[in-house]
Amino acid sequence: MKITLSKDIQVKKFEFVGELDFFETSPYIALLEGLKTQEDLIAELEDKNMPSSAIKNVIQKLEELKVLKDGMIINIEDGFPEKEYGKYTFSYFENDTKKPFKYLAENIRREKAVSKNIADNILQLDKYLQNFIESKHEIFNKKETFEVVEIEKNKGLLHHVGSKKIDLVYEDEKWNHVIDDKIISMESIDLNVVFQKKWDEEYNSLKVEYGWIKENIEALQNFEISFQNKIYKVGEYGEFKVDFENIPIIPKTEHHALKWFIALLKIDIENKNRYISKDELKQLWLNLKDKKPKFKKFDLKFDFEMILNEFGKKSKYYWLLQAGIDLYPFDNSLAPKSRVIIEAQEDIDLDVDFFQKFHIEYPSELIIVDRWIVNLDQYRGLEKIIEALRNPIVTIITQKVKDKKNNRLIEKIIQRHGIKVIEKDIKDIVHPRYWIFDKEHIYLTNESFDFIKIDNEKVDVSYTTFLQFEKKDLDPKLLSMEIK
């Protein structure tokens, strides 16, 4: 997540004659940088159009400080006092609010050495000078710090230079303000203030209405949104143009959560591209709640009739669900003994990352009842499962292979692993998909082997679940298929 708040600030220069107390460095240090002799120094000052009398004063001052000795420049770092008198130009940024700053020093530059009580070509600015004199100034993004001891005759010349952009940036859970690519840390801004009291602190997400993002499928699925060029007033910091990147979002209310949830459920149904039983729809519902934990904030209970009503009779989703009821009226409302959740993962180790979640030893026998094991990709997925389980005896009950183009490759997989294939008419196979280990551990899943993707022996899996049931709770039609 990244937040950028931007606005223009004023850039000003203030010229004055007076005395400064430098807490870390003197302006002489910058002047003498790279110079080795008195002749080098005189040439540098003449290039700056400094009058000869002022040059003489600088030479005398440096000799008194033992920085200049026998025509050589020495002891630069140690030889300067803290307090320096001269004519200065002070550049600073002026913000229209006190936060994150009212004034921020950019630099201080000594224009020339001057004698005491000389203050030429300057105007009266008493009101501003009082605050300026009383403040300690830190040079923007530098170590140098100074304080004004005195401004000669309380006079100075103020120039309006122009404006620059300031960004207040929130990234990696820290706030900084940025000017000219220079970064300074700042106090945190409450995200609830930034987002106009719409921030959910429990889930660290922006509360949004479903209607605002209903056309944004990516935002609905990823629970993130980006937007920019809006004007926000951010508490005491003033008005900013905002740029929000990858902001986590959450439904504003339970009403919006339900609309949002149904929209994602439609996508899952669309991906199936077939009719779905009531029992399978419930599994899709539970899977979606597991995949999108922010929905757990809301009390979204499965209600088949409510879902049908949300879709409406003009929706194809309504008829896909209704067809599932007409063709498969069996309703499994039993609570499972356990629930195994397989997270979406790339290049997964099926042995370690997949089957260890079942907490069972390697089975000697596996029976799979699934009417949709019908193409090469699914048989390749089945082969990887068999290998991960160390080659148990495998029986599958399914319909006839529909992938005629790859029939020979499918047959090789069947022969290689000694798979017993019992082909039945689709109407004679129960709709739910069962995996049965050693005729004892019985799991129901809503996925065929499509959730296993194989590319050059790399195995990826998509999100799926397995529900464990007691044998006595099985669909009677399953028991009649001689699985005992």
The main β sheet shows up as:
13 strands, mixed
Our measurement of the CA-to-CA distance between the termini, rounded to an integer number of angstroms, reads: 54 Å
Determine the structural class based on helices, strands and strand pairing. Answer: alpha+beta
Mean pLDDT: 84
Poorly predicted runs are 326-331
- How large is the count of helical segments? 15
Considering DSSP H and I runs of 4 or more, what fraction of the residues is helical?
Answer: 25-40%
Strand content: 25-35%
Structural shape: elongated
CATH fold name of the domain at 338-479, please?
A: Endonuclease, Chain A
Radius of gyration: 38 Å
**Class of the domain at 338-479, according to the CATH hierarchy?**
Alpha Beta
The CATH architecture of the domain at 338-479 comes to 2-Layer Sandwich
Note down, in words, how this protein is organized.
There is one protein chain. The chain is of the alpha+beta class and 484 residues long. Helix content is 29%, strand content 33%. It contains 15 helices and 24 strands. The protein has helices at residues 27-32, 38-47, 52-64, 126-134, 191-194, 210-213, 217-222, 254-272, 278-291, 304-311, 316-327, 350-354, 376-388, 407-417, 476-479, and strands spanning 2-22, 68-69, 72-73, 83-94, 103-112, 123-124, 136-138, 145-151, 155-171, 174-179, 182-185, 199-200, 205-208, 224-233, 239-251, 338-342, 365-369, 393-398, 420-423, 433-437, 441-445, 452-455, 458-461, 464-469. The strands form 4 sheets. Strands 1, 4, 5, 6, 7, 8, 9, 10, 11, 12, 13, 14 and 15 form a 13-stranded mixed beta sheet that branches. A 7-stranded mixed beta sheet has the order 16-24-21-20-17-18-19, with no helix packed on it. Strands 2-3 form a two-stranded antiparallel sheet. A hairpin with a 2-residue loop joins strand 9 and strand 10 (174-179). The two termini are 54 Å apart. The relative contact order is 0.09.
